[in-house]
Design goal:
Helices cover 33% and strands 22% of the residues. The chain has eight helices and eleven strands. The chain is globular, with a radius of gyration of 24 Å.
Length: 286
């Protein structure tokens, strides 16, 4: 069995300062947004990271039963994903990166901002999965802030495969099948699926990617990462997926709460100060 995992690397938005959010809100395009976040580290989405770890655990579980499993991981974007791709190679993945702005496809518009273009992204994900092969395609249910959650479904449709969403666990079953645990309206449920299929990973219990050993890193330090372009995958008609909405800007949500400092040396004095300075007027108006 071959398992392919698609992931996305995004800036660590939690590390941005208020001034950076203002620059991000004023950014006119993807290049401006990248400039506003260039100094923060790049991290995988929490669902994508869970998908990568679930693939490793599924490989380990199949190895106990003597079943052979190969892993592949790919991302769509620029060189900012290189550190994570190197880590995945050390963990046993065959790594690949698709540059959406590569080759002549850039002139056709394939290099446009994909952050808010789920249809375009799904086309690229499906093409990557076909190129790398894979009986099972694991994707994060949503790809970071403002993710639409549409990509797994659109990619499954393009591949002609069934899609299970909000997956929280995957285990091997007999006859090359899988037992998939997923969250439903009535609570956790389990189903047995037959590959090929697409699994959209949600709030999995396992959400942290393991860390490779130094020995594993040194063993693949010279291993190349496959570099792909839309042209390599036969995606030269970028206009086929036009019409995705493009955001005009970003704004932070002020989650601060109004408060007051109550003076007084003792709890009784503080209670009296709170009553006289704030609560008394409210009660009288009521």
């Amino acid at each position: 069995m071959r398992i392919a995992v698609g992931f996305k690397v995004t800036p660590d938005y939690d590390a941005l300062r208020p001034a950076d959010w203002e620059r991000l809100a004023a950014a006119p395009d993807a290049a401006g947004r990248a400039a506003a976040t260039r100094y923060v580290r790049r991290v995988p989405g929490v669902f994508d990271e869970a998908a990568l770890e679930l693939a490793l655990r599924l490989r380990d579980a199949r190895a106990v039963d003597g079943l052979e499993t190969s892993l592949a991981a790919f991302t769509i974007g620029g060189p900012e994903a290189a550190p994570l791709l190197a880590t995945l190679q050390a963990l046993g993945f065959a790594a690949a990166r698709l540059d959406p702005a590569g080759g002549a496809a850039e002139a056709a518009g394939a290099g446009a901002d994909l952050d808010f273009a789920p249809a375009n992204t799904a086309d690229l994900v499906a093409a990557c999965a076909q190129r790398l092969g894979g009986d099972v395609l694991l994707l994060g249910a949503r790809g970071g802030p403002a993710g639409s959650g549409l990509v797994p479904f659109l990619a499954a449709e393009a591949l002609g495969r069934p899609c299970a969403t909000e997956v929280t666990g995957v285990e091997p079953a007999q006859n090359e099948r899988l037992r998939v645990t997923f969250a439903a309206d009535d609570g956790p449920m389990r189903a047995t699926v037959t590959p090929p299929c697409v699994l959209a990973v949600g709030n999995a219990v396992v959400s942290m990617l393991r860390v490779p050993t130094l020995k594993d890193r040194l063993a693949v330090r010279d291993a190349p990462v496959a570099e792909l372009t839309p042209e390599d995958l036969g995606l030269t008609d970028a206009a086929a997926r036009a019409g995705d909405p493009v955001p005009a800007g970003f704004d932070t949500i002020d989650r601060g709460r109004a408060g007051m400092v109550v003076g007084g040396a003792t709890p009784a004095e503080q209670a009296l100060a709170l009553y006289e300075g704030h609560l008394r007027a409210l009660l009288e108006r009521a």
